[in-house]
Amino acid sequence: MPLKTPEEYVDSLRSLKIRAYIGGERVEDVVDHPAVAPHVNTVAKTYQLAHEAEHEELMTATSHLTGRKIHRFTHIFQNSDDLIKKIQMLRLMGQATGTCFQRCVGLDAANAIYATTFEVDRAHGTDYHRRFRDFLVEVQDQDLMTAGAMTDPKGDRSKRPSQQDDPDQYVRVVERRPDGVVIRGAKLHNTGGINSHQVLVLPGMALNEDERDYAIACAVPADAEGVVFIFGRQSNDERKLENGCQDYGNPRFGVVGGEAMIVFDDVFVPNERIFLNGEHDFCGHLVEYFATWHRANYGGCKGGNADVLIGATAKMTRILGTARNGIVKDKLTEMVHLNETTFASAIGASAMGYLLPSGSFMFDPLLANTVKQNITRNVYQISRLSHDLAGGILATMPDARAFDNPEIGHYVKKYVAATSEYDALERLKMARYIENMTSVTSQVEAMHGAGSPQAQRIVMLRQAELDKKIEMVENVVDGTDDVEGLRLRAEPVPAR
Q: Which residues are the active-site residues?
């Protein structure tokens, strides 16, 4: 089957019987619901760009399994060039949508399962890798969108999964049958799941021997019996639901990725869709693989989003008439510097990657975690500078409906306007976009997506090889391998 068109993607979603709740109410038509439609449109953009000749190299790849042309969002990374193209693709998508395009988690989950199942089979004599390859060929050939589900509710954080008062706080196997298993639990913060075809379920942490029931990785159709999506709230989301109130912030693509809680209420998973089942000793390994691939992404996707935010901020300075001010230029330069720093570290993590036993390719872990650590700071700083330059009207802009009110519309247009080159509506559009993309939803996603800051710091310290660095300084300070006869030290000055 050829690459899906945007229209085919949307039609394929309409054919699913997804059980979803939005605003606490059951929704039959998920695709066209105003809270979800912008997120569907965002993913459709990933399908659209794959058909455009100028973006083909970034958006498509050749499957190492079939030799067929596939979407890069379904690809298993084979070398550094694949990783670099991935980061470039993510930045392109961020530039094209100005928001989260939702397919990264599924891509990284697929790569993590591919690499881990190979190693599990080698250690335990299982058949998971063959199963996953068969599933992946189906995903590639049908050009499916796959969501990744890793984060468990966790309940009491002071207790492990096996110690919880409610054992369902982590997804677990509650029944084993000859033809498969039944799973129960939930996954949180799931990006794009409500508009995906398949959900990849992964354990969210390293597990002990007595926690084998929680060591489950599998693929579940989004409309499988027992799967329930409970859509989350986002900053300013009610604007999409208000009649006559145009959300000028980003009406086409929305804010962030449309996260949902996914409940697995005794969901049956057949054997062919099970890729880990009790092998607790590889859960931490799988999580670390996923985290490394996913954390490096942020230099690409957030880089693209920041490009659009910098553009909105720069346009706002032109609207306000401050663009030629030296201080304003310096702050815009700082925004660019912060953004390019994170992008450069992601490219570095790609270039310094290495081959895994499965034949797939991994980012440099230290640099990948450094990327995400930078994001937890730089995104906030870029947003602060945007707020600084755009002004207080970000927080006090009149409702868009005020522009059309015959009694007050002329006041709004008169007093919101700035330079004569732009009208008041242009200022409103830029203000709303900046407000949306620097809101709590976007900021928290930058902070906690792919793991909270301390998670990266733990890996960074482990990868830093401090003992080797101590050896380096000792060799520099106390080494004796100098050129024979070379005078390196001045003669001591005699005391008077």
A: 100, 104, 191, 259, 294, 298, 301, 445
